[in-house]
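Pipeline run #58 for the internal structure catalog. This entry was flagged by the ingest filter as a single-chain record with no existing model, so it goes straight to prediction. Upstream metadata was stripped on purpose; only the residue string is passed forward. Reviewer on rotation: M.T. Logging verbosity set to normal.
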Amino acid sequence: MRLLITILLIKFCVYEVYTQNLIPNPSFEDTIQLNFGLTFPRFWTQPTNGNPNHYSPHSRPEWQVPQNYVGYQLAYKGENYVGILMHKMLPQGSDSKREYFQVKLEDSLKKDSTYCLQLFLSLADSCQYASRNQLGIYLSNSEVSVSTTFRLQYKPQILVVSSQEYFEEKDRWVEFNFEYIAEGKEKYLIIGNFNDTSGVEKKFIGGGEQLDYSGTYYYIDDLYLGHCDSLPDTTI
């Protein structure tokens, strides 16, 4: 009997490790209360001086869910999500402000192991431009901290929106899935736009019903990074 219990405990522990989402607070439900009535997702940080946004029913009116200053959207999972600026329309030759989120993974990635990344994306209602080849995921061995409001000059290992299609979906959440073979020891995940202004591919789609937003801004929710056999069941 004791041997059976030991075997079951070992199997349970192995299963827990194997099914673990390496991203803490993946749907941004665990929040920190900031000054001026704002909230921020626990375990997530800003690697630059850009100001990514946390949307929650418990935040001030401009940053609430589902109605907020750039649009209307229910959370895909739970009641919170985040938003980041991809680019704003600026004079030719000038660089555009960028916003990023960073999180420390629960464990370092193992060399040559295959991991699955999943996330959900929606374009804010007020955006007048759709973009492609913009939103990137950069996996780093060390924490990134740069005093700038402009782009981080790293090459992301994953591009979320392909170079073939402009992302125009404002009404619903769209699921994205990727496989990644680890180089080994990646410990931090950073999400944002790593392209310079000359690399911004944009398409005018109209909008701006509540705000004349001349740029591209994404809502993001429910990230997963872990073993591919343990991808959560999803229903759009």
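catalog note: DSSP finds one helix and 16 strands in the chain.
catalog note: Residues 3-18 have pLDDT under 50 and may be disordered.
status: ready for reviewer M.T.
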